[in-house]
Amino acid sequence: YSTCHWCHVMAHETFEDEEVASILNKSFVSIKVDREERPDVDMVYMAACQAITLKGGWPLSVFMTPEGKPFFAGTYFPKTSRMGMVGFLDLANQIAAAWQNNQGPLIEASEKITRGIQPRPSKGSISELGPDTLQKGYDQLAQAFDPKWGGFGSAPKFPTPHNLTFLLRWYKRTGEPNALHMVEKTLDGMRAGGIFDHIGYGFSRYSVDERWLVPHFEKMLYDQAMLAMAYTETYQATGKARHGKVVDEVITYVLRDMTSPEGGFYTAEDADSEGKEGLFYVWTPGEIRDHLGKDLADLFCRYYDVGNHGNFEDGRSILHARIPLDKFAEQEKMEVAELEKILEEGREKLFAARERRIHPLKDDKVLTSWNGLMIVAMAKAYQALGHQSYVDAAQNAAGFILERLKKNHRLFRRYRDGEVAHPGYLDDYTNFVWGLIELYEATFAPKYLEEAMALNNV
């Protein structure tokens, strides 16, 4: 996908290489797919990769017959074999030779894999969902919960906001305090960690460690939307201002950096800039002193754990709040409000300085499905927090989708530079209809409910 670090690595060291290109052009028909534009294609071949290797991910490399039936798949391959990993050049040569000299086993494998990933009817009886099912879901999340850092399971850690919104509903239904505790511990941990951009706001896609410290730095629109919903609903459940503040921060990022002039929301921002992952986001103490002066920089570095040795690559540091603000204020013998004001002054100066850096690539296509999620998030945030700019942005995005991505009563998937492509998929309809319903509930404008009903009946 467009903003994936390892996709870039493989593109640069393999697909742009003349030696690799000569093999591919001689023996293969090479097709490159944007997995966000074509989730239907990605779903099929990711299932094949998982069946073959028992794991998946991107970049996804699939070798298949002319009929599109896969017989070999994997994720990242270096150009040449190293450290136990087969090289793409060796792999392509071996597959080309096998296809030329002995196709039989490859075709047999492709038939077997194709049969293996076909949907199958359920063998068991289908029972109605009920409280027991919800209880089981809660029990499984409680068992997987990390009590030290929040989140579920071990590294790598993904935000999984849908788990959090489920737990909020379980808390509301049962009054179980641990359900709310798991939500707040996770949300507070992510906001304090390096997975959150403390200078420009917004969340990265996931953390490679269990502490939420080191992210894969790409920022996806759907994560901003779903996390904004989770923080909004936690604010509604608890009334605690800190959760509402994170909603404001996430939406500030989306409105500033991820909104097109026409009103649609962009898809993602890259992990890389200047050929290095995370370079745009990380700092040294010297860089911070250059922009903030010694006293403010020292305070800023203490709070955000920026040291001389760094916590990332090349001695640079990912900002993260290693202790809670109130405890840090006590440690520094300062009032919390005074400390917040000083840190915000430093953040604004560093943001201005960072804006002069080379920015990561922005994937500026507009996807109907993900815009639907962001419309939901903005409408919910408006209902909870009352900021008019949120519902205005949601209405602008909905208007953009209805004007540009709806034709003959049907939705399309993608818009970019005036071009509309691909009939809409199920998630385009479900997420955008959801957005229209939330907009109706935020504005009581009948047109949104009417559009939702019409699209739901397509």
Write the layout of secondary structure elements.
Layout: H1 5-15, H2 18-27, H3 39-53, E1 61-64, E2 70-74, H4 88-101, H5 103-116, H6 131-144, H7 161-174, H8 177-192, E3 206-207, E4 215-216, E5 219-220, H9 221-238, H10 241-257, E6 268-269, E7 272-273, E8 276-277, H11 285-292, H12 294-304, H13 325-332, H14 336-354, E9 362-363, E10 366-367, H15 368-385, H16 388-404, E11 406-407, E12 410-416, E13 419-423, H17 426-443, H18 446-456
Antiparallel strand pairs: 1-2, 3-4, 5-6, 6-9, 7-8, 10-12, 11-12, 12-13
Structural notes for this entry:
The chain is α+β, with helices and mostly antiparallel strands. It is built from 18 helices and 13 strands. It has helices spanning about 5-15, 20-25, 40-55, 90-100, 105-115, 130-145, 160-175, 175-190, 220-240, 240-255, 285-290, 295-305, 325-330, 335-355, 370-385, 390-405, 425-445, 445-455; strands at about 60-65, 70-75, 205, 215, 220, 270, 270-275, 275, 360-365, 365, 405, 410-415, 420-425. Strands 10, 11, 12 and 13 form a four-stranded antiparallel sheet that branches. A hairpin with a 2-residue loop joins strand 7 and strand 8 (about 275). Helix 7 (about 160-175) packs antiparallel against helix 8 (about 175-190), helix 9 runs antiparallel to helix 10 (about 240-255) and helix 9 (about 220-240) runs parallel beside helix 15. The protein is globular, with a radius of gyration of 24 Å. The chain starts with a helix and ends with a helix.
| Count of discrete alpha- or pi-helical segments spanning 4 or more residues | 18
Averaging pLDDT over every residue, what do you get? 95
Distance between the termini: 29 Å
The largest sheet is: 4 strands, antiparallel
The helix content is 55-70%
Uncertain regions spanning at least 5 consecutive residues: none
Helix/strand-derived class?
alpha+beta
What is the C-alpha radius of gyration, as a whole number of Å? 24 Å
Assembly status? single chain
Gross geometry = globular
Q: What portion of residues belong to β-strands?
A: 5-15%
